[in-house]
């Protein structure tokens, strides 16, 4: 019977795969224009991590203003971007760790620690952005923090989960590597009279 649990050698690529998924979600968050959007028609407000755009109810063209002109805009972008760069480094280290047997468990906990740093940077950026945006940018109509902002949080949640697994994985090193000998249970004839 083949069992592939959390700490299974055949499932060792699951954690790097999840980190790759977090990278994809981070790219969507960095490139997406849906950090803040108008909730209903007329759609007059739209913002990304980098700029805020508005238009009149009857206009077709967006008037955009860079958020990099604000200190908080640079801080939010920088912290999220630094977290993303460290996440890419962690992904590369995870691929190396699970590819080369000698190195695998020597620095897996280090990758977990770096992932907590990634999560901290991303959370700081994701908190600075809505707080300062709503304070300093005049909003028109009903607005909501939208899909790209959600991808930023989804990436952060995946990173936090992976960080815990990377930190705990060395505790099951023998199980992952298959170094545990099977335990056989038997009873002697004196202890099992029903076998006679």
TrEMBL record:
It is found in: Cell junction, Desmosome; Cell membrane; Cytoplasm. Its main location: other. GO terms for biological process: apoptotic process; cell-cell adhesion. Signal peptide: none annotated. GO terms for cellular component: cytoplasm; desmosome; plasma membrane. The chain crosses the membrane at residues 12-32, 77-98, 110-131, 151-172. Pfam families: PMP22_Claudin (PF00822). It is a multi-pass membrane protein. Keywords: Apoptosis, Cell adhesion, Cell junction, Cell membrane, Cytoplasm, Membrane, Transmembrane, Transmembrane helix. InterPro entries: P53_induced (IPR015664), PMP22/EMP/MP20/Claudin (IPR004031). Belongs to the TMEM47 family. This is p53 apoptosis effector related to PMP-22. The gene is Perp_0.
């Amino acid at each position: 019977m083949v069992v592939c649990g959390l700490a299974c050698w055949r499932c060792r690529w699951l954690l790097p795969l999840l980190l790759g998924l977090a990278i994809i979600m981070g790219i969507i968050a960095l490139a997406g224009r849906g950090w803040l959007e108008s909730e209903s028609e007329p759609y007059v407000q739209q913002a990304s991590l980098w700029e805020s755009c508005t238009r009149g109810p009857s206009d077709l063209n967006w008037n955009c203003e860079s958020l990099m002109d604000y200190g908080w805009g640079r801080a939010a972008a920088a912290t999220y971007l630094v977290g993303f760069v460290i996440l890419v480094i962690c992904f590369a280290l995870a691929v190396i760790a699970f590819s080369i047997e000698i190195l695998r468990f020597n620095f897996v906990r280090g990758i977990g620690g770096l992932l907590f740093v990634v999560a901290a940077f991303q959370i700081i950026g994701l908190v600075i952005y809505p707080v300062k945006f709503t304070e300093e940018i005049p909003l028109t109509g009903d607005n909501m923090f939208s899909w790209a902002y959600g991808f930023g949080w989804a990436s952060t949640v995946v990173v936090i989960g992976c960080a815990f697994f990377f930190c705990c994985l060395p505790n099951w090193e023998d199980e992952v590597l298959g170094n545990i000998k099977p335990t056989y249970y038997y009873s002697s004839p004196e202890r099992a009279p029903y076998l006679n």
